[in-house]
Amino acid sequence: MNGLTKEQKQRVEELLSRMTLDEKIGQMNQESPSIVGGFDVPFEELIEMMTDGRISKEEFGRIMESAQQDFHEDMIREGGVGSLMVQDPVKVNELQKIAVEESRLGIPLIFGLDVIHGFRSVYPIAIAEAGSFDTDLFERTAGMAAKESRAAGVAWHFAPMVDVARDARWGRVSEGPGEDPFLGSEFARAKVRGLQNDQSSTENYVAACLKHYVGYGAAEAGRDYNTVSMAMHVFYNNYLKPFAAAVDEGAQTVMAAFNDLNGVPCTVNEFLLRKTLKESLGFPGFVVSDANAIRECVVHGIAEDDVDAGIKAAAAGMDMDMGTEIYSKHLKEAVESGKLDISVIDEAVRRILSVKMWLGLFEHPYVSEEAMHRYDTLPKEHTDLALEAAEKSIVLLKNENHVLPLKKDAKIALVGSLADSRTEIIGAWAMSWQEKDCVSIREGMEQTFENVRYFPCGGPEGDISMDEVIAAGDYGDVIVAVLGELDSMSGEASSRTDITIPGRQRELLEMLMHTGKPVVLVLMNGRPLALDWEDQFVPVIVEAWHLGIRMGDAVAHVLSGDKNPEGRLSSTFPKVSGQCPVYYNAMNTGRPGSKSKFTSRYLDIAPGPLYPFGYGLSYTEYAYSELSVTETSADCWVSVKVTNTGDAAGRETVQFYLQDVTGSLVRPVKELKGFRKISLEPGKSENVIFRLPKKDMGFYDNDGRYRLEDGLFRFYVGGSSESCQMAELRIAF
Length: 733
Ligand code: BGC
What we know:
single chain, Rossmann fold, 23 helices, globular
């Protein structure tokens, strides 16, 4: 189990045999510091005040810093806590000392945290990084985050988030690798390797936590926490896939999702937790609930009260309770009264202790003084990697008249308040970064170009300054407008119904266009946006997401041509919000959308997305030719010639899609089955070969049975999900 040695397994069993029921249940309890006062209003109201804008996020942060906190020391001493969410290494050591030296059995705590896209060195949000299609990069950034967090005592990341997300209205699309199960699976595997595999020292690895298991990304209408209903073949072929891949890669823990799946909240869903995850997929680690989720089962209406919710969750296979203390308060009585079998508790504790053992926490529970300060100044290697990731994640969406790249001595009017921010570049769910390490777009541009002048003009919130617009037009040979979303507009509890550029920024764009100067729109955002208007009228659009600490440099390098853009969209961009959800690997219909009225389309917009999955331009061009498909007994072989036909060197993402033309169930119009990144000098060609094992050409039916069905298959290869060459082959398995 969990890659433990025989001796370690014996130690776990021996420990288990010495534990009281209270101590066992204590291991199943995760706490975070409780805010117990130091301000004038109840904590809940404080949260509301921040939500409705009565206090700013910054003010809230300041209040929290000075708030009185309870770290549950007494409970830890009694063996009543298995895990805590803390990131201050001094506090980590202090609490760990109580667990190790003052509790009866000395079992170390495991400290967990949301390290979603970096710890001290923040790299791009996942939806952006996934668009680099660079699995080696995914792994290296995860490895960097593991080392930085472990040096602060955080040995457990609540990451990777691998929810397939097809609805851009959902705020959490920013946190995961996009809409595609294949890319999502490659991302999930690479992240697990990066977080877990360098076990040369306990300082180099952490436990991954796959979340949110499962289907959270399919929340109805993109509204966070909403109900999820889906056919089981959709579940197996799409939403489960990245989880299954990451379990196969050895992920140590899993977090259950908030939502219900087909009527049963994931938190108490025995089919998902016990049958599918633990039995069918053979997951050896432990499952933690999402925050407060066990209590929410009462609100869901699936449990009568806390006691009932706790019993149902534990029985379903939920090993650790995040934040409600329901397990600590009620499971003992449930076991003693015969409502819950002790074997359920033993299994959970065995899994939790095994992960702690695997992490080396028993031997190395503390953070050393040296480690604590190791990243006070970020090593160049780390900031370079953050830059590499940021550069590779930028997607060039439109470049009319080759406005880009810009000359280094061009007079650039830099517009938009986002351009001057060191904090907005970070994006949702990052908490351990420092402003001193961040490079705003303004700073990056001033570093790279000779003549940059900044005119705020406006931003996601507030008014437009007409005077500044006029001044920008007067100054610039070109206007670079940095517009988009605040980082608080994506992430958890940040769904939007209208996913156009928020506030008055479109108006601002129109005004900038009226200056007569070419406008380069640089987008900073955490979700696909509806850019129909911008695509029609703005000559140049660069999707720059929230790219982390080196965002400013990365954007400047792409605009100057020092870096030829190579990022692709990991999610389809709709034309208008009303098209959501829109994704490339949709099911066939009997009436695919076309010009004709009685087809699957809307009256007011042409069928199809604005920018498809896999799309992205470069400063050069690539041609595809000589596509061929052959088969051997076990595999299909797809070969294509890719030529750089432009005059700049570049990196192309060669994408391979498959269509199973006829099946016993309706099949998607296309599914990604492979990708390869190649570097090509101008005029050069490369033959790219994909091997597709025939065993991977099947699909799951509604009963979870895997089917390989003979018939016609179409093989598509190209530079995006829409621009592909196609070859056909009839296969008999
Ligand atoms: C989120 C999780 C996160 C947890 C702990 C929850 O609200 O849904 O993704 O890991 O909080 O911070």
